[in-house]
Specification:
Number of helices of chain A: 10
Structural class of chain B: alpha/beta
Strand content of chain B: 5-15%
Shape of chain A: globular
CATH class of the largest domain in chain B: Alpha Beta
Oligomer: heterodimer
Distance between the termini of chain B: 69 Å
Distance between the termini of chain A: 24 Å
Radius of gyration of chain B: 22 Å
CATH architecture of the largest domain in chain A: Up-down Bundle
CATH topology of the largest domain in chain A: Glutathione S-transferase Yfyf (Class Pi), Chain A, domain 2
Radius of gyration of chain A: 22 Å
Largest sheet of chain B: 4 strands, parallel
Helix content of chain B: 40-55%
CATH architecture of the largest domain in chain B: 3-Layer(aba) Sandwich
Order of helices and strands of chain A: EEEHEEEEEHHHEHHEEHHEHEHEE
Largest interface: A-B, 23 and 18 residues
Number of domains of chain A: 2
CATH topology of the largest domain in chain B: Dna Topoisomerase Vi A Subunit, Chain: A, domain 2
Structural class of chain A: alpha/beta
Order of helices and strands of chain B: HHHEEHEHEHEHEH
CATH superfamily of the largest domain in chain A: RecF/RecN/SMC, N-terminal domain
CATH class of the largest domain in chain A: Mainly Alpha
Number of strands of chain B: 6
Largest sheet of chain A: 6 strands, antiparallel
Chain lengths: 370, 198
């Protein structure tokens, strides 16, 4: 799949921009603070209906304008269709093939995007939240119904936390309602965790050989799911449910004391080991980067195997962060297969032929001067 | 500024209604100016009376101009079944169907700790008292199929279960006259879950 063209209106520092892209590599070059990342972000927002840089949609709208629009033409499964995201004070509107999609889970997944930004190098050593977002985003674009369950789950956690706080402050004494919310929570938690287990199996299948390749057979990667409860990764939904039931039953008083939900997928994490050593704590910077790179490359292959086509890859300022060896490994993998957007301040230090054959766009102060 | 005070007040009143923005409010206000005086008076009276004369039935919580409400007073209805709904509008929807002949209980909301709404803030206590007094055999829980509606139904069922009253939940699934292919995945999976033997 690839994006044929993009039209931005009042989006961040772009007043009105229309671009047509090559179906292979597109390099966006420019000085700092000219709008390279904004352009990458626009493609990301078109795919996921929200930004990875901010949770406030309002920031996407240009200063003193009342709406912003991103429109793109996508080619996927031999079909061409438009996608559109509009943001205004009234909220956001997502249109797929000219039709408004009221549920975002019907929109996300139409365009598959893998993003690799400098922040992603923190995937390994950063906070658990980054890793949870990574799995959630990836499962979401392969299986849109996952987003629905995640949304319901987050709502229940919010309700449950409020109730736990009320119980903590003795504003209520009603444990029946707590039992009800716990039952609802477990229902969705078990689905989410089960889907994460299945996804991890797929991720391992791709990431482990890729990591082995990049490390020249010297490193063996293992990925484990760290759960807030005691449950095996091979467990099925009913088994996961019983594990949650006993965890919540045995810790009800503790939860009330803390006023917060202590178990569930929102507390889980991923652990990475290289040659049986925890990369997060004991890995070198290089090992952490190789792991992050393996995961991102695995993501590309995983989407290809699940969706049937390669996703679009966004490399935001990340090539310069990788050494020549990892750079060429990355570029070699995508060569001729994946539509890729690379943003960088200069192409001179990237020797690879993929970049030299790429379509060049030069950004200056919110316009493209080519 | 451009409008004399009486009309600007009228415009302002219209904007308080749901679904009416500033432009529609202006259009409606000018329409009222051209209406016959009697019609305007009737309209104003209807508005005031709807607010003044309507109250909630002390038995079931439905909106009514007499207490108990017409449904609660109707001797021909089945006393052994109560259908629990969230909103008076839901009673009207059920009544339009003309299939249900039992009694109702209107909760006026759903339990939501996030919004500070507990069981005692909606009509749950009055339901429990009602269940003690009357010859109820079945309780149909027809709250909305979202998180709060679902939680409210589960909550009530837990409280009532020990009394031995039969508790049922309305089915979730496909709308009639619709096409299977247009149903979203969640509805479809609920419909599959609730499938039945033919």
């Amino acid at each position: 799949m690839y994006i044929k063209d993009l039209h931005l209106t009042n989006y961040r520092n772009y007043q009105d921009l229309q671009l047509s892209f090559a179906d292979k590599v597109n390099v966006i070059i420019g000085e700092n603070a000219q709008g390279k990342t904004n352009l990458m972000e626009a493609i990301y927002v078109l795919a996921f209906s929200k930004s990875y840089r901010t949770s406030r949609d309002k920031e996407l709208v240009q200063w003193e304008q009342n709406y912003a629009k991103i429109k793109g033409t996508v080619f996927k499964r031999n079909q061409t269709f438009p996608m559109e995201m509009q943001f205004s004070t009234k909220g956001k509107i997502a249109k797929l093939n000219h039709m408004e999609q009221r549920r975002l889970s019907d929109y996300i997944g139409a365009l598959n995007v893998v993003m690799f930004a400098p922040e992603d190098l923190h995937l390994v050593k950063g906070s658990p939240q980054i890793r949870r977002r990574f799995i959630d985003m990836e499962i979401g674009q392969i299986q849109p119904v996952y987003i629905y369950h995640l949304g319901q789950y987050q709502k229940i956690v919010k309700q449950r936390n409020h109730l736990l706080k009320n119980l903590q402050r003795r504003q209520t004494n009603d444990r029946t309602m707590l039992e009800v919310l716990t039952e609802q929570l477990i229902e969705h938690a078990a689905i989410i965790v089960e889907k994460r287990f299945v996804f991890l199996d797929l991720l391992r299948k791709w990431a482990i050989p890729i990591h082995q390749g990049i490390s020249d057979d010297k490193e063996r990667l293992t990925i484990t799911y760290f759960s807030s409860i005691d449950v095996s990764e091979t467990a099925e939904r009913e088994k996961i449910k019983t594990s949650y039931q006993s965890a919540f039953m045995n810790n009800m008083d503790k939860e009330i004391e803390r006023g917060s939900t202590l178990f569930g997928p929102h507390r889980d994490d991923l652990l990475f080991f290289v040659n049986d050593k925890d990369v997060q704590t004991y890995g070198s910077q290089g090992q952490q980067r190789t792991t992050a790179l393996s995961l991102k490359l695995a993501e590309i292959e995983l989407i290809k195997s699940e969706v049937g086509e390669y996703p679009i890859l966004l490399l935001d300022d990340v090539l310069s962060e990788l050494d020549h060896y990892r750079q060429s490994h990355l570029l070699h993998t995508i060569q001729g297969k994946v539509q890729t957007f690379v943003s960088t301040t200069s192409v001179s230090d990237i020797q690879h032929e993929t970049i030299q054959q790429a379509e060049l766009f030069e950004v200056k102060n919110g316009t493209i001067i080519r | 500024m451009y409008y004399p005070e009486p009309i600007s007040k009228l415009i302002d009143s219209f904007t308080k209604l749901p679904g009416i923005g500033p432009k529609t409010a202006v259009r409606l206000a000018f329409f009222v100016l051209n209406m016959k005086e009697d019609d305007v008076l009737d309209f104003a009276k209807a508005l005031v009376n709807a607010k003044r004369e309507l109250s909630h039935c002390t038995t079931c919580g439905h909106i009514t101009d007499q207490d108990p409400c017409a449904i609660c007073q109707d001797e021909s209805r089945n006393n052994t079944v109560i259908c629990v709904v969230q909103d008076p509008k839901d009673v009207i929807a059920m009544e339009k169907m003309k299939e249900f002949n039992g009694r109702y209980h209107v909760l006026h909301g759903a339990i939501s700790p996030m919004d500070g709404i507990g069981p005692e803030d909606i009509n749950v206590p009055s339901l429990l008292t009602r269940l003690k007094d009357e010859e109820i055999e079945e309780l149909i829980l027809a709250t909305n199929p979202n998180i709060e509606g679902e939680a409210t139904a589960m909550y009530i069922s837990r409280l009532v279960k020990p009394s031995g009253i039969r508790i049922t939940r309305i089915a979730h699934g496909l709308p009639m006259g619709g096409d299977l292919e247009y149903a979203d995945e969640v509805t479809l999976s609920k419909a599959l879950e609730g499938r039945r033997e033919l």
